[in-house]
Structures are given as C-alpha cells and as structure tokens.
User: What shape does this take?
Amino acid sequence: MNYAFLVKILYFFIVAMLLALLEIQIEGPNGWAAKLPTWRARLGTRFDKLFKKFFHEKDLTGYFLALNTFLLVVFHMPFIWHFQWSIWEELSILSVYVIFAATWDFLWFVLNPKFSLRKFDKKHVWWHKKWWGVMPVDYYMAIILSIVFLLPETIMINPIEGIFKIVALLGLNIILISITIMIYPKAY
Assistant: This one.
C-alpha cells in the first residue's frame, strides 16, 4: 500500500478546504469572482472562445487565471526541491490537481454560510453553466481526467498500484467531503 500517496491526498484535501474558506472570505456569496475587481476576457475573442470551450462556457477572469497558475506552480514544487522530474510523477500531480480543484470548488458550497448545499443547483450556481444530474459537468470531467492521468502508470508500470491510486484518490476525497458535510452545521 502506498501510504505516501494517501498522505498527499489528505494534505491536498486540507489545502482545498483552507482555500475554499479563504475564497469564501474573498467572494462571500458571489461565486466566480462576480463582484471582484478582476479583469475578464473580452467576449468573443479567441482567448475567450478557447477558454469557454475547455471550461464549459465559463468566463475567464484574471482571478481564475492567476490563482490556478499559482496552484499549478505550487503543486510542482517537489520537482524543484528534488530536481527529479518523471512523466509518472507529472501525471500523478496532474491527477491529484484536477480532483483537488473540483474538491476545492465543491467545498466552497459546503462551507459557505451564505450559500450552502441547498442552493447547489443550476438555478443558483449560474457560473457552472452545464450540469449532468446533480453536479456540474466540470466535476465529472475532473474525475475522468484524474483517471486518464493515472492510466498510463496503471497500464505500463504497476496495475495494482495504479488502481490503488485511482480508488484512493477518488474514494478518500468522497469520504472526506462526506465527513465535512456531516460535521459542518451550515452545510445545509
């Protein structure tokens, strides 16, 4: 069993929770930087169209771009500390990152006393324009991308380790989110 990977998942869940709490302080009930003094891509430009294609019709904001670029740089710090890059570690980091991003986003709703899960639907969450059932398409895409990033290692290196990583990454985040919902009194 890869305990180091479990520790990474727990660590990044805590980071996602802290980031969600910070964003709640910054945004309040207004998601997607709606009331922040941040630049937005001009509608109809190539950059705007490209971003909307990959991020399901969301508007590109400077806040989103700066924060996510910063987080990707932080996620790659192990390569700077150890000066050892490998494609397998890169794919593992990207897999953790996409689940981290979806977890952080969802925790914003769970922990936001001005929002809560009662309002977690297409009607109230206007910035998630595309939904499948009870979740935004982005969350399903994060799950799929996370698995895709871990598949090469699973197929080519160690199937048991790869399957463990996939199950642990998805399962532990679901368990930790569920515990957070049960413990946090304002989640509903």
Notes: Helices lie at 3-27, 46-54, 62-75, 77-82, 87-111, 137-156, 159-183.
